[in-house]
């Protein structure tokens, strides 16, 4: 315990020193105020401030700093309470007893100069790549519940199925993939062509493939729909929300028609309303795959090569292919768009070794996902549908962009 505490304090000191410079003027025992909350506290050694230690251990968040005493950090301590008090969840009628993890951002401010120059975050910061993604995943977990105003109780509304899908896939259920997004393009007569997929990963952002930003026939992607099941009807009991895309972020290393770094983010014109029909997915931050788990691909794509796309959301359970197996399958396709072959660090392969199961045209940009074992009724997106050889060819996997390789890039845009 003592060793872990010392390591924790060392990490705090190190993190503080590497951030932008701030002049510090408070000493142990001085009164202090938490920035942006106006809550008052007392400057104490971090080892004597339970609320600061709790925030570090549970949220990996740096408390507000007063100064140093030797090598130990003096923090603004709120005795007997947590340093971070999450706001209440607000239902459509009234607030409940549930709590919501705050959106955390890092800012830098400077106070009047003194003889000692140190670094101090004015708001909590995350220490490692992936911490933001995990914290937001935990926050969005609240939307798996339907909140009942009477009594302030919440009921779990989970539609994740553990039943294997039939060969070739089957229709998804209402609310089963609430992060699923359809990406639309303008065609004649004010009609929208929904021809790519994506994943809602925050109130304002969709994760998709870079090659979905522009369609060879219909031009630039312009619209996003979430919370839907059947795109062709209003009688499926879904609660769809439709948005205009106001900004696109193509990965800077994606080049033209290349198959590498096939990942992009779409910013919506307003925040999505989060509920059991539409809520963000978690992002897989671990590079290592559990090859025993069968990931699920979803989309409104074609059910066979060169066939029409489906208006109803489809799902299919797949198997991971090893890098060696995938490389063999694409050995004859390593042309100008795949010069380096399949890259294990940034691509994932999934399909079936003995059945005709795959993603297909129209599924591009959609998620390859697994059930998140740390959160209730949540998926983690491990891949983004990128390309393949036809559709449903036995022992020929589809190729997906590996999300874990791009977490830092995603976090800097979605949760700066």
| Count of extended strands | 26
Oligomer: single chain
CATH architecture of the largest domain: Beta Barrel
Structural class: alpha+beta
Fraction of helical residues: 10-25%
Largest sheet: 9 strands, mixed
Overall average pLDDT: 78
Quickly name the level 1 CATH class of the largest domain: Mainly Beta
The first-to-last residue Cα distance is: 33 Å
Task: Give your account of this protein's structure.
It contains 5 helices and 26 strands. It has helices spanning 2-18, 50-59, 131-140, 323-329, 407-414, and strands at 21-23, 31-33, 40-45, 65-69, 72-77, 88-90, 95-99, 117-119, 145-148, 153-156, 170-171, 180-187, 191-200, 205-208, 214-215, 219-226, 241-250, 264-268, 282-283, 296-299, 314-317, 319-321, 347-351, 367-371, 379-387, 398-402. By secondary structure, the protein is of the alpha+beta class. The chain has 2 domains: 2-127, no CATH class; 170-414, Thrombin, subunit H (Beta Barrel), CATH 2.40.10. Strands 11, 19, 20, 21, 22, 23, 24, 25 and 26 form a 9-stranded mixed sheet that branches. Strands 12-13-14-18-17-16 form a 6-stranded antiparallel beta barrel. A 4-stranded antiparallel sheet has the order 2-3-5-4, with helices on one face. It comes from Ignelater luminosus. It is found in: Secreted.
Q: How is this structure best summarized?
A:
The chain has 416 residues and is an alpha+beta fold. The chain folds into two domains: 2-127, no CATH class; 170-414, Trypsin-like serine proteases (Thrombin, subunit H, Beta Barrel).
């Amino acid at each position: 315990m003592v060793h872990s505490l010392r390591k924790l304090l060392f990490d705090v000191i190190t993190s503080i020193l590497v951030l932008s410079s701030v002049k510090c003027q408070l000493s142990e025992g001085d009164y202090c105020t938490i920035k942006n909350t106006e809550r008052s506290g007392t400057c104490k050694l971090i080892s004597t401030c339970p609320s600061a230690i709790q925030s570090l251990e549970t949220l990996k968040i740096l408390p507000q700093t007063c100064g140093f005493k030797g090598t130990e950090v003096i923090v603004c301590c709120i005795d007997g309470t947590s340093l971070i008090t999450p706001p209440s969840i607000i239902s459509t009628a009234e607030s409940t007893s549930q709590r919501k993890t705050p959106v955390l951002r890092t800012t830098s401010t400077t106070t009047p100069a003194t003889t000692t120059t140190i670094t101090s975050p004015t708001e909590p910061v995350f220490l490692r790549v992936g911490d933001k993604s995990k914290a937001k995943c935990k926050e969005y977990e609240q939307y798996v519940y339907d909140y009942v105003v009477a009594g302030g109780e919440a009921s779990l509304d989970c539609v994740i199925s553990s039943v294997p899908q039939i060969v070739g896939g089957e229709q998804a259920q209402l609310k089963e993939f609430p992060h699923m997004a359809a990406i639309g393009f303008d065609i004649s007569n004010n009609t929208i062509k929904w021809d790519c997929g994506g994943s809602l990963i925050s109130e304002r952002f969709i994760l998709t493939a870079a090659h979905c930003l522009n369609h060879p026939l219909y031009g630039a992607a312009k619209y996003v729909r979430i919370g839907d099941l059947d795109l062709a009807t209003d009688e499926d009991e879904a609660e769809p929300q439709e948005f205009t895309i106001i900004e696109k972020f193509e990965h800077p290393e994606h080049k033209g028609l290349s198959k590498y770094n096939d990942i992009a983010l779409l910013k919506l014109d307003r925040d999505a309303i989060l509920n059991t029909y539409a809520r963000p997915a978690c992002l897989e931050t671990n590079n290592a795959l559990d090859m025993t788990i069968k990931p699920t691909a979803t989309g409104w794509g074609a059910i066979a090569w060169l066939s029409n796309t489906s208006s109803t959301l489809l799902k299919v359970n797949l198997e991971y292919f090893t890098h060696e197996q995938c490389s063999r399958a694409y050995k004859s396709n390593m042309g100008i768009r795949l010069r380096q072959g399949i890259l294990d660090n940034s691509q994932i392969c999934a399909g079936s070794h003995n059945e005709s199961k795959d993603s297909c045209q129209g599924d591009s940009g959609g998620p390859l996902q697994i059930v998140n074992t740390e959160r209730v009724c949540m998926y983690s997106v491990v891949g983004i549908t990128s390309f393949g050889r036809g559709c449903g060819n036995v022992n020929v996997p589809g190729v997906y962009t590996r999300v874990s390789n791009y977490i830092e890039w995603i976090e800097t845009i979605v949760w700066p």
